[in-house]
Amino acid sequence: FELKEYKKALDYYHQAAKLSLNDPLPLEKIAQLYEHLGNDEFAQNAALKAAEVFIKNREVNKAIENWARVTRINPENIRAHSRLALVYERLSRKQQAVTEYLIVASLFQNANDMEKAVKAVKHALQILPGNNEAHKAMELLKELKPLPKPTRPLEGTRPVGVAPERQLEEQKTEDALPEMNLDPVAETRQKALSVLAGMLFESLDEGQNEQYTQRGLQAIMRGTGIMFPKQVDNTRIVLHLSQVIDLQTNAQIEQAADELERAMEAGLDHAAGYFDLGLMRAQTERLESALRNLKQAVKHPDFALGARLLLGETLQKMGRKQEALVEYLEALSLADSQVVEEQYAEDLRQLYEPLIEVQRQQTDAETQSQICDNVNELLMRADWREHLRHAREQLPAQTDGGSLIPIAEILTQARSSQVVESLNNIYQLARSGYLLSAMEEAFYALHFAPTYLPLHTYIGELLLTQDHFREAIDKFIMVAQSYNARGQTQRAIDLYRRVIKLTPLELTPRSRLIDQLIATGQIDDALKAYLEFADVHYSLADLTMARKTYTEALQLAQQSKADRAWQVKILHCIADIDLQSLEWRQALRLFERICSMQPDDEKARSGLIDLNFRLDQEAQALAELDNYIAYLRKEGKNEKAIEFMESLASDNPDQISIRPRLARVYRQLGRIQDAITQLDVAGKKFLEMGYPENAIHAVEAILVLKPPNASAYQRLLAQLRGK
Q1: Which of 118, 284, 322, 695 has its CB surrounded by the most CB atoms within 10 Å?
Q2: Rounded Cα distance, 661 and 686, in Å
């Protein structure tokens, strides 16, 4: 792309799109490239697909951008205009929504669908009853006169005078720029509103795979899913959220906050909601409510910086200056780590911890206020990233191999040297084998840094080294809980993982780890942790708890955007437990679901057929077998079809009806002798079982294949008919 080898770039973006179905960026690039290359049909199709994926990912602005690209390429694309109309309406961008609905009406009229054209105009009038254009459109329809049709920009699909190469260069420049130029709180608010708005668009794909996938709005609600009792009112949530967007857009903050609170009462549970509600409660001076919600939002990395700054401001208003100081410094830690190279970010955040610990003990109210004001002035500005980088340039240069210096040292004029020096002493004593002395030094350090959590963690490591295993585990769990209470969820996650590694059969740390992973949006890791948790229950021979844990994992997979492969894997695990518990009908239903989601899943197909045989449902078993073989043949997987049927026949020797079907597939693939062998075995088995009519059919089928010893089969057939 950068080398302007656009056809090669197109090939690579196509490959990327196939490998990552939930990533809209390759599709967007494909649309741009096709547009540049003059292939308008492919360009609009790619842009439509990109928009749909963007809306599923709740990136509403990017979806709008791609639908707008489609209408620029093809002004008469009714699908794109319909999508834009709906999105604008739900975002309370009423004039734009009306414009799009009138275009939709014009396109329906042009397609001789007057009923839909009238409905579109009526809907536009419901949105803006006094809109002159909508009233004029209704008059034209009544008079059977044509509505104005949408037109294409004069210079094709590009702005006048802009060459294709320049247009792509401009697009690349736009892609490289940050999306927003706002202060951190405004940025986070924008992000939260985008997420909340995205939740309204579940209906865009309503009915598509609805039985087997739980996406969009349901991804952030409690207790929904195929196998679970419904605990939320989706209709109420959507209703309240639409009111939130409308009211907040019109600066009716208190009413918007009340509507958002009602959405949460109906089951909405997402950090975006907590942040937005916390922000609105802070704006209306309902500070206690603001604190409660912001403390929930701070756990999610996407909302942590804005939430920390709002917490600091709110606590300062409440006169809780010491707590405000800590929140402001935590915010500065997050912001500072965003403007350095990624490889240094985590180390820089760790350097903030002793500094924050010293300030946690700060008792001088004037100093506390001054530092809070300094951080607020540094960060609460539209150019905060550039301003931070400039401030970082004022710090002493980093030496080769040395550590970065936290920018907070400009504001606090403190290097927390006493804590750092004490930690160095502890490390040196421990490395030299003086473990008791190291522990004494650690307890001494607690006198001036009692809540410094890395120090408590190292005490746990010293306890572990001295074989005080239980005490070390308890210490790690206590520190993890403290990190969680402070909103430093990733640190809590790291410690819970450490505990699990040390004591894999302990259940509580696993449960807490899963909670933290879900809270921070690490869904794949949470699902992996769920499966490991279920394995622990299974190893303890507690099949009931293992199944319950798998079921909770399935619920999470359905609610989130997790790959469908997770659901299939978990359903297999539940089915295995049901088989062991002889709950065959439950297992049967699970295999049916797996086959619906993944038709080529051989294990599920085999299980489905086997269970139907076990439940004396032979007709259903054979129907499932026929369906699967037909599917494999259609996909060109003939060898797999043969292997599957051979294995099935071998594993179920008494189910003789399998063999004529295997013979049929052999015959269709030209393997005549193999077909004869299978029919011969089937015929003999039918005779042994007392089914002469079936045996006759088998011999007749053999004779159709013209076997070398046809005369012997003819004599056998005569004998059978004579009986």
Answers
A1: 695
A2: 14
